[in-house]
Automatic annotation (TrEMBL):
Family: Belongs to the zinc-containing alcohol dehydrogenase family.
Annotated Alcohol dehydrogenase-like N-terminal domain residues: 58-93
GO MF, one example: metal ion binding
Name of the protein this chain belongs to: Uncharacterized protein
InterPro entries from the UniProt entry: ADH-like_C, ADH-like_N, GroES-like_sf, NAD(P)-bd_dom_sf
Cofactor(s) this protein requires: Zn(2+)
Domain spans labelled Alcohol dehydrogenase-like C-terminal: 151-262
Keywords in alphabetical order: Metal-binding, Oxidoreductase, Zinc
Gene3D superfamilies: Medium-chain alcohol dehydrogenases, catalytic domain (3.90.180.10), NAD(P)-binding Rossmann-like Domain (3.40.50.720)
Amino acid sequence: MTTAIAFTGVDRVEVRQETDVPPGPGEFTVASTVSLISSGTEGICLGRRFEAGTHWDEWVRYPFAPGYSLVGVVAELGPGTTRVSLGDRVAVRKPHRGRVVVTADDDVYPIPDEVDDLAASWFHLATIAQVGVRRAAHRLGDRVAVVGLGPVGQLVVRYVRAAGAAEVIAVDPIVHRVELARAGGATVGLAMGVTEAVEAIREHCGGVDVLYDVTGAAPVLGQALGALDRFGRLVLLGDTGSPSAQHLSKHVIVEGLTIVGAHDMHGEHPASAHAPWNNPRMGELFFRYLARGDLRVAELVSHRFPAHRAGEAYELVSRRDPAAMGIAFDWS
């Protein structure tokens, strides 16, 4: 038996024991050490905060196994498995569970010795952030604003600074989140709502070339468009559960703006819009940055819980605790 976390209904979290399944041909079992909550996605799934007919509605069926950023050690090999060895440390896109079986079709991310398990557990949020940054098609010296400084927004700040942005303006009404973004490379921090921030950005630099909406809050799209300079690009990286509540503004036509959608699944296939940078290659790059010290995520971890306290962890997510950032489960 192994411990697993499940959503059994709206705002209902259960820690339960599930039967272990042995790995089949070409498969292997990972004994988990750390898994990271994707607070935006998992919060929407747990509270069923989405409209009928959306892709969320098609995806979330209770009991639902949350999570997709898990790190562990290869503990058992199925017949004919050669791509890993016993004892290898790997990251895999699997739910919060004490032991998971990795199939031949699953992506596997080998973890360098220089990267610890907790930092490695950010790998999938890091690939999601990279999808957005690549979709933005940045130019050296871009003026950039990042609205919404949760875990993915924090990673976007760090990536665009590394990509050579001249200005990285970090926007969030929570002061602590703005401070974390400043520590991660933001050149300007605005602890305020998006409407106020648009005016402040206009006063500061006349408008930005690229703006990331990483909030998942439907009203922000229309409000944020006014911060873009003429012919600017808005990258919609926060996936709202209420797309019908998103609206455009006059700026789209008048200023010739481009709106770019970016989603987790865009990195799943080698023929993606930013090929050859599929998820495994983006994960490898993330680990290389961590190993060299070019990027840090340790300061983004706010809470760690053993799996049996999953209810407490998701209480932070559900109430959108302003002190919560990276929330991890310890399985070792």
